[in-house]
Design brief:
The chain is an alpha/beta fold and 137 residues long. It has five helices and five strands; from the N terminus they run βαβαβαβαβα.
């Protein structure tokens, strides 16, 4: 089985935000397998905010289980942070995304919602699609 390579991912800076070290590692391995090399991870809201400022990430994948805040509160903080050069694309990773959760995620500022467990080609495809939309704008 050969993996589909997405060339634009190699330039993309991406953060994986989850309190679960195994989950961060698994998502990182998926992205690495598809050619993505510029990754940073965060396990707390503070580290998400600090890393977003420090590394100027293009995408943040937010696990719905992020500690201390709801993912929606985190997105509102990121969208309102004047210290960020530009607000990254935000993708929510959710175990059981209902229509209500998806609507709330979109109104909070998430660009996409992906169901857990993460399907590698779906994850990379969503990132690539959002990257193309951002490039076209």
């Amino acid at each position: 089985m050969s993996l589909v390579k997405f060339p634009s991912l190699k330039r993309t800076r991406l953060m994986i935000a989850s309190p679960d070290r195994f989950f961060r590692s698994m998502v990182g391995e998926i992205l690495s397998a598809y050619g993505y090399v510029h990754q940073v991870s965060a396990e707390t809201v503070k580290s998400v905010l600090d890393n977003a400022r420090r590394y100027h990430t293009d995408f943040i994948l937010v696990d719905e289980d992020i500690a201390f805040l709801t993912p929606f509160e985190l997105v509102r903080m990121l969208r309102g942070d004047t210290d960020l050069n530009s607000v990254p694309q935000l993708v929510l990773l959710a175990a059981r995304p209902t229509r209500v959760l998806i609507d709330e995620a979109r109104s909070a500022g998430f660009n996409a919602v992906i169901t857990k467990p993460v399907i590698p080609l779906r994850l990379v495809g969503v990132i690539e699609q959002l990257q193309n939309v951002r490039s076209a704008a």
